[in-house]
Amino acid sequence: MNSLFHLAFNITDGDQTRAFYGGVLSCREGRSTATWVDFDFLATNSRCT
Q1: Most exposed residue of 8, 18, 20, 37, measured as fewest CB within 10 angstroms of its CB?
Q2: Alpha helices, DSSP H only, in 1-49?
Q3: CA separation (Å) from 2 to 8, 17, 19, 21, 31?
């Protein structure tokens, strides 16, 4: 494997997470539920749970 595809981070506040990854870093939001959200972070699937 030459590169990472999936990263996972534990979070405590979904709204703050969306504000940071979506607003500050301009990451596109992918799939989500009430307990997790995926972001496109530099062509890597990053899941915040």
Answers
A1: 8
A2: 14-18
A3: 18, 28, 31, 25, 25
Q: Specify if 24 maps to a domain.
A: yes
Q: Which two tokens stand for residue 33?
A: 């539920």
Q: Which residue has the tokens 């405590």?
A: 12
Q: What pLDDT band is residue 16 in, cutting at 50, 70 and 90?
A: very high
pLDDT band per the 50, 70, 90 thresholds, residue 7: confident
**Does pLDDT of 42 surpass 90?**
no
Q: What is the count of structural domains for the chain?
A: 1
Q: Which domain holds residue 22?
A: 6-48
Is 29 within a domain?
A: yes
